[in-house]
Amino acid sequence: MDETVFGFGVCPVTHDPKIIMIQQFAPLHEKPSKINDPREVMLYTLSSGKWTSLSPASSNVLSKSIRVQWYGQVIDRFIYWSGLHLKALNSRLIRWNCNLILSFDMTDHTFQVIDLPDSLAKHPPSKISIFKLRESLVIFQSNEKEKQCHDVVWMMENNGVEKSFTKVFAIIAPEYGSSIRAMGLRNNGTLIMQVKKDYRCEESEIVVYEPKTQHLNALKIDGVRSFSTVNSYKETLVLLGSE
């Protein structure tokens, strides 16, 4: 099954819109014997008007042992994805090894793998989400325990070449059990979440968590779980074909 992932951003240096395409297949369709081979990665730039293949040598293209999730976040000159590191058990089986963050630099077209703290690296991959808070990368970690939801929000900090992760705040919401699904962050730091209205059905509602007051407020927006999305936007004018 084809699970190709795309990323889009505008280079802050050249102001050239770019699309990155990372070809990958479902884990069951990946061959363990080729797990260390480089993935096929294509780059489209508006200035050239064409797709080009990135060289593994010059762009540090990731190997097939690294998989990225669907949605990326653009911060400054980087596109970030949450990802997985896979390990071949034998000639037929591949298993998840740890979580990671993958970045793509739009200025020099290179990839970098960012390691996570153990509490995030070994957490179930489906319980890890990344978001953008102003100009910082934020990780939402969902923890389910005894029908309660103790979720943690982390922020990535740049310390020169090294990157560290700091716990920003935690959410304890027993009234929603384990039904919380993070959807995004507002610029003021409030977290937008989707929660089930009733465990017996898939109907859900959108709520906002205020870290300072630790209150959850419903936005009176209903929907169906996993079929609702929240996206940020920025008013930008790009003149196509202009010199």
From TrEMBL:
<dbReference type="Pfam" id="PF08268">
    <property type="entry name" value="FBA_3"/>
</dbReference>
<dbReference type="InterPro" id="IPR013187">
    <property type="entry name" value="F-box-assoc_dom_typ3"/>
</dbReference>
<dbReference type="InterPro" id="IPR050796">
    <property type="entry name" value="SCF_F-box_component"/>
</dbReference>
<feature type="domain" description="F-box associated beta-propeller type 3">
    <location>
        <begin position="27"/>
        <end position="232"/>
    </location>
</feature>
<protein>
    <recommendedName>
        <fullName>F-box associated beta-propeller type 3 domain-containing protein</fullName>
    </recommendedName>
</protein>
